Amino acid sequence: MGTKYVSLNDRRYRYLCRCRSDAADPLLEELRAETAALGKEVSKCQISDDQGTFLSILVAAAGVKSAIEVGTFTGYSSLCIARALPPKGKLICLDASEEWTAVARKYWAKAGLQDRIELRLGPAIARLKRLEPGLTFDFAFIDAAKTEYDAYYELLLPRIRRNGLILFDNMLWGGRLGDGAVRQANGRAIDALNRKLASDPRVEAALLSVADGIQFCRKR
Ligand SMILES: C[S@@+](CC[C@H](N)C(=O)[O-])C[C@H]1O[C@@H](n2cnc3c(N)ncnc32)[C@H](O)[C@@H]1O
Question: Comparing C-alpha atoms, which of 161, 128, 115, 139 is closest to residue 55?
Fold first, then answer.
């Protein structure tokens, strides 16, 4: 098989991070620095710079008005999604952590986006089950508990409009998929969902090698 991909290393990654419109955005930089100060183990939860820009471009280009995020942490992805919404657009954020989302709230306020974002704290599955009847979305970003991704998907898909998008993060699971049997529960869940999405007639799906892998699904 000819090489149809480019492997990343730190130098290439730094290069691609520089080659984006919001590379010098002071608020994103500040949030990244504040999150980094929480320590390496914690801060690795945050999406990558290029992913953030990708989310913003996608949300704006698709004309998204109504979005939902499962897994907000300190708010990087939510900032990138919310600021690409139109002024009356809305993003619902689900997360179980009051501590991490307190940081997110601070940055939503700094960005003047607090009116576009509603945070719903608690376990994501319970929160998804309690969404208002009739509430629908143009866009969903899923980045919380890996073993629950399929449950989030099944609860959200009926609420996604036709041609709406669902994106799942960490679908390459640190590069550990594709080499045979997987033992860990997180890896097994992600692998099973990747296979399910590939043959699910309800969506068109592509696994993109952006950061740790984004499953990019369009509802048919
Ligand atoms: C990988 S981080 C999200 C990163 C975020 N998208 C960003 O851009 O910084 C995962 C988040 O999901 C939350 N989370 C994990 N399991 C959850 C669950 N079962 N219900 C709700 N939130 C959960 C964690 O509190 C954490 O903030």
Answer: 139
Question: Which residue, by CA, sits nearest to atom 25 of ligand 1?
Answer: 97
Retrieve residue 215's tokens.
Answer: 């499953």
**Ligand 1 — pocket residues by CB below 6 A?**
45-47, 71-74, 76-77, 94-97, 100, 123-124, 143-145, 148
Helix ranges, the chain (H): 10-18, 26-36, 40-43, 49-61, 76-82, 98-110, 124-129, 149-156, 185-198
Fold of 10-219: Rossmann fold (3.40.50)
- The predicted-structure confidence for 75-107, as pLDDT tens digits, reads as follows 999 999 999 999 999 999 999 999 999 999 999
Spans of all domains in the chain? 10-219
